[in-house]
Amino acid sequence: MSSSQQEGFASSCASLYTMVSHNALDSPESYTIAWITALPIERAAAEAMLDEEHRAPTGFTRHQTDSNVYTWGRVGEHNIVIAALASGVYGTTSAATTASGLLASLPSIRIGLLVGIGGGVARPDQDQDIRLGDIVVSQPCDTTGGVCQYDFIKAKSGGKCERKGFLGRPPAVLLNALTSIQARHERKDSDVPYLLQVMLESNPKMGKRTKKNPGYAHQGFDNDRLFKASCDYIPGPDCQGCDTAGEVYRDPRDTADPDIHYGTIASGNTLVKDASTRDSIVADLGKDFICFEMEAAGLMNHFPCLVIRGICDYADSHKNDRWQRYASATAAAYSKELLAYVPVAEVQETKRALDTAR
């Protein structure tokens, strides 16, 4: 994309971002895609990606079992409803509750996106060079549908562990979109950097940095440090006291633009923030995980969706909150770009999520 095209793209997006509709669509059935987040910062990034925001649709009635609060809007040609887990209540059960309430109130929903942050499994020596701010996307591989529940296992003889049960795959319409966007990215750069730029221009507060809030912009290469599993965290800001001898050297990147990785995401109710635990889970299940997170396993068999995560830490003791907002934004920007490859007609032809839940 030439510089003039980039400017035109950014200008076009900027005008879209400022479009806030005070109208309501005629029916809740106009909404066919649900976008679920866990944290307020993830929801903020999702809402910043809307091309148009709506009021609640005419005739919408919340089901008695539904306690969700919704944001309604449009991304490209798709009408989207955004929901988030209850504040401070995380994990697979909370995610399942959110999805259940959503589908009870909005039976017209066909597909979903679970978008937010996660802990990356970086193995640069094995060609798995995941960095903070990168994007990971669940993609079926071998016997997994793209997500594996790591805390649902059984012990076997010889000290080995085996996964119990299987999680569903994303719907075909989203897998076809993955094929299309991956092919596009073989030829052209991702639109994510431009979408982030427009987001910050249209929402200046998201770009401001304070001591408590580092903002939704890239946090700087100096603040992206990967340590060996044997290197313990020494309390202090930005790992200043951690042993530099335990830091893993990685070739510098020539751009701050996030890379996109596709593979198996590990999901469970336990927050993984210890490198030894992280590596033990990976070894026990024998999967080349690219990310750890805490909600997807509660959805995959009951809510057909794709999982998209921005990497905010390395699932080790060195994790901190600095990269969470930027990682939320990169995941949201990729989700917006992906939706351009999802045909509206194919979504309409897809079975309702209620009918495919197992």
Detail the topology: elements first, then pairings.
Elements: H1 3-17, E1 20-24, E2 33-37, H2 40-48, E3 52-55, E4 71-75, E5 78-84, H3 92-105, E6 111-120, E7 135-138, E8 147-149, E9 153-155, E10 161-163, H4 172-187, H5 192-202, H6 204-207, E11 260-267, H7 275-285, E12 289-293, E13 305-313, H8 324-339, H9 344-349, H10 353-356
Parallel strand pairs: 1-3, 2-5, 2-6, 6-13, 7-11, 8-11, 11-12
Antiparallel strand pairs: 3-4, 4-5, 6-12, 7-13, 9-10
Helix pairs in contact: 1-5, 2-8, 5-8
Low-confidence runs: 1-18
How many helix segments?
A: 10
Total separate domains: 1
**Mean pLDDT over the full residue set:** 87
Content of β-strand:
15-25%
The biggest beta sheet is recorded as: 5 strands, mixed, barrel
Given helix and strand content, the structural type is alpha/beta
Give the radius of gyration. Answer: 20 Å
Global outline: globular
- The CATH topology: Rossmann fold
What does this structure look like?
- By secondary structure, the protein is an alpha/beta fold.
- 30% of the residues lie in helices and 20% in strands.
- It is built from 10 helices and 13 strands.
- The protein has helices at residues 3-17, 40-48, 92-105, 172-187, 192-202, 204-207, 275-285, 324-339, 344-349, 353-356, and strands spanning 20-24, 33-37, 52-55, 71-75, 78-84, 111-120, 135-138, 147-149, 153-155, 161-163, 260-267, 289-293, 305-313.
- The strands form 2 sheets. Strands 6-12-11-7-13 form a 5-stranded mixed beta barrel. Strands 9-10 form a two-stranded antiparallel ribbon.
- α2 (40-48) packs across α8 (324-339) and α5 packs across α8.
- The longest helix is centred in the middle third of the chain and has 16 residues, at 172-187.
- It starts with a helix and ends with a helix.
- Mean pLDDT is 87; it is low at 1-18.
